[in-house]
Amino acid sequence: MMTAASPDGSITIGVDRVDERPHYHVRADGDTLVAPSPLGFDFEDAPPLRDGFEVIGTTGRTVDDTWTPVWGTQDTVRNHFAERTIRLREADGPERRLTLVLRAYDDGVAFRYRWPEQPNLDSLRIASEETHFRLTADHTAWWIPDDYDNYEWVYRETPLSAIRDRATAISFNSYLEDDEDRTPVRPTSKEDRPGAVNPPLTLRSPDENRYLALHEAALTDYSSMTLQADPDAPTTLRTHLVPRPNGVKVKTSVPHRTPWRVLQIADRPGGLIESHLLQNLNEPSKIGDPSWIEPMTYVGIWWSMHIGTHTWGQTDAHGATTERTKRYVDFAAEHDIDGVLVEGWNVGWESWLQDDNFDFAESYPDFDLEEVAEYGREKGVALIGHHETGGDVPSYERQMGEAFALYDSVGVPAVKTGYAGPIRPEGVHHHGQQMVNHYRRVVKEAAEHNIMLDVHEPVMGTGIERTWPHMMTREGVRGMEYNAWSEGNPPRHTVTLPFTRMLAGPLDYTPGIFNLTPEETMPDHRVRTTLSKQLANMVVLYSPVQMAADLIEHYEGEDAVEFIERVPADWSEGHVLNARIGESITIARRKKDSEAWYVGTTTNAEARILTVPLDFLDAGQSYVAHVFEDTPASDYEDNPHAYRIRRGLVTTGGTIGADLARSGGQAVILEPATAGDQEEYGALE
User: Fold this and answer.
1) Is 481 an active-site residue?
2) Which residue is catalytic, options 130, 294, 465, 481?
3) What percent of the chain has pLDDT over 70?
């Protein structure tokens, strides 16, 4: 028996030998999702490990346990799966051994390779991983190209079969709102390579009854996986690993194991979002006492540099001054916001993207790190540190221990890191094995100093936040900053991300902009949403370190700042209530250790009316609904700042109507009603 079946019996993954080569297949509800697809490896310095195998043993087990995340979207996560381990050996030659591990969950399948310790194989120089995905239908696909150095692209929607004919490079000036094939992107750092994508790759079946997502989990000491379209088979994808400078994909020793190859399976798009499959495929937490790991909301000295009012480097318009940081701390304390990010405090920004002579322990003369950290402590506001490397990894690694020790000594609990630039040494890619290992070294160094991480220009998330829960969030997306200096992100962008990029884990998109048409950047650059959508995105675009990204002066005097004051960054429960990929979404999340709920609803460039069902509320309890929403006059192009707040009582079984403007949104707080609330409010109208 070489098959694993999900606990409910609906999904199976199995392995067969075809001409002595192992092939795997995946079925769901009797339908074949992945037809028999070959497995194996080619090596730089040894014969391929693909065929001529004999099975020398199989074992199976079933696991059903529950674990408690340090933070997240659920209080507890069930890890329930069936596993089949298949041990293979070459029938002839050196008799090298390879193990396949299959897992079947009710929400998907996963498999990985293991090389056990053995006398005839002590090291690996992998030229290619020959894992194929022979998908059986021409699904609708949402994808970004396989850029080896960034994920900052707008997701494209095409048939799966069209991927093989699409070039990766699209001119940065090719944005046309009415042309779906020409969306704003960040130029790729490599040559065009048609027909390849970065996971997660999200798919919808032709009958729209099944949703799939291809990704990887537990990426450790290995190269990131991209997916190459087969030129001869329009719905087949092949694993392509990001190369090292010499072309080798992975260089390591035996014993070793690959990341999991993962296929999420759901009967509705919201099922992909609600899944915890990636985290379940990672090891339990290695942090013995996680009490120092605390989700937070924050503001920061950041957006002003992107719109051009301040600079990172030392000038007359320097952003990161002691005086300005204290003003941000005062604002955060007044509005119950947990932290303040300060970018551009350390010397070296004048050389950014040139020589990158950053010093991570020396501040500019107008910034006193100890003083502002102490000021924040007195006010109950954390200072969030910043390490921008510019891609100069050798320099950062030389300074990393001292840099984290400095933050530790002054009480900085979280650091945002950045790698905006080509990685050095030359030829190393952000998503290759060397950087995968570098990012992990940073994670371990941060753990030594009890410091949380927000990583920009990262490798894509693969669920390691379960193992290293201080790895809080990461960018890896075309985020808010693009609205300050590029053609901007189209309205559909943030209603696509929950079903694509966010399947890989928390997202530091940096929502919360109130001044959507900054005079410094207009008319060429602005944010293409309404203000209410910015609020809703603080619920929809999940991050346990969540930024309200605007300048603090733009929040002053705005009634809508109430939502930012109250929205948490940690949750006990969540439900996707409405979902059409790239069109609209509603997510309800319950505040950690509370009976209060927060609901975010957003739409693309189409105005629409949605119904938000309230079946998740406790029976017998009335709730006060605080609704922040578009007005009839709101429009993301002509009147983006218009919003209104209405309040009233609701109960389970009821609904809230969401009348959304173009690229609009609705953000709702639902809190149990007191006796006084019952007297003050009538039913929500």
Assistant:
1) yes
2) 481
3) 95
